[in-house]
Structures are given as C-alpha cells and as structure tokens.
C-alpha cells in the first residue's frame, strides 16, 4: 500500500514515523533497533509534530504508514483526529507467520490487532468516519478499493498506484532490510491467495488471542468485492 501511494505524482510518503518512539518507550528488542533509534525522534510528541510538517512544493497528499502496535492502548490519541485514518487488517495467523520470520518472539500486543480494535472504538466515540479494509478483500480487487479511497478523500485516482518498479525507496525506513524483502521485490499487488500457515503452539495461541479483535474489525470492513 505504501508503494501504491508513493507512486502518485502528488504524494509524499512517511514510513512508520512512531517506530523509534515505540522502541524507546517499550525497550523491546527488534532487528536493527539501534539504527531505528538513531534515525527517528524517540519522543512521541516530537514524532507527531513532524507529521504536521509543511508539504514539499507540488505535493498535496501526505501518506503515513503506521503500525498500530506503535500506539499504546489507553494512551492519548487525540492527535490522530487531525488526520484521515484507515485501518488495514489481516488474518492474525498470517500476521503472526509474517512477524516471526523477522523476530522470534511474538505476543498478542506485538501484531497490532488489539490496538486496532481499541483505536476504532476511540474514533467511533469521536464520531469519525474510519474505513476498515481487509487485506484479503483488497487484494481481490486493488483498483476498486484504491478508487474508493480516492473518492472518499476527494482526490484523483492515478493508474500509477497499481504498479511500480522493484527496489528500495529513499522513504523506506532503515528497518527495510530486516522486514521488507517482499516489498522490495514487488512491482504491484499480488493476487490474493488463501494461505495455509504453520505456527508453533505458542504462536498459534497468539493468533487465536487476537482473533476476536480481528473478527470484530472484519464485521466493519468494506465489502466492495
């Protein structure tokens, strides 16, 4: 999704701007931890302030890719209401399988679904319109979904959002070598394929602990296909 938005002529992309603040706050060990801490603000307020930076000339759209687990449940998320928010969800077994390819340890709070459910509750209470899209549905028809999002945002759709050259981008976080193998190799959205994942008993339990949150979010997801 980040590649699609960056391939627009009017858009600047920011990759996981709260990552260093999350690592500093939690002390959690991630691949490339020290590189991330050195590359971004470790203070959450400073990181959020940077999200309001003036856009470059010729740019009218600011796209920030966040990971929901970078936000603590129960924290003050009033700052998020200044933005148009979208939740992208994925079956928890698939999320866990992807996560443990780069980091051995995994707990329910590491994969973001619990935080996504909580964030949606906060936005509901604030009366905000926040679409939820399931990655499986999106991959069945990326163009229909991207056109819907552009209409919702009242911006033009560009066919360039559907394909892009392989390789790294200057906007990629310094963590890209640890997490982005598939992204770096991609040239577009791969067709949706149901996945059969094999998880350890612990990782399977993590996925199942997050499944009620996923199911609740799934009930709210766009049904465009």
From TrEMBL:
Chain segments annotated as transmembrane: none
Keywords: Hydrolase
GO BP, one annotated term: carboxylic acid metabolic process
Gene Ontology MF term list: hydrolase activity
Gene3D superfamilies: P-loop containing nucleotide triphosphate hydrolases
One Pfam assignment: Sulfotransfer_5
Keyword Mitochondrion applies: no
Family designation: Belongs to the class-IV pyridoxal-phosphate-dependent aminotransferase family.
PANTHER family assigned: AMINO-ACID AMINOTRANSFERASE (PTHR42743), AMINODEOXYCHORISMATE LYASE (PTHR42743:SF11)
Stated name of the protein: HAD family hydrolase
Originating organism: Nocardioides flavescens
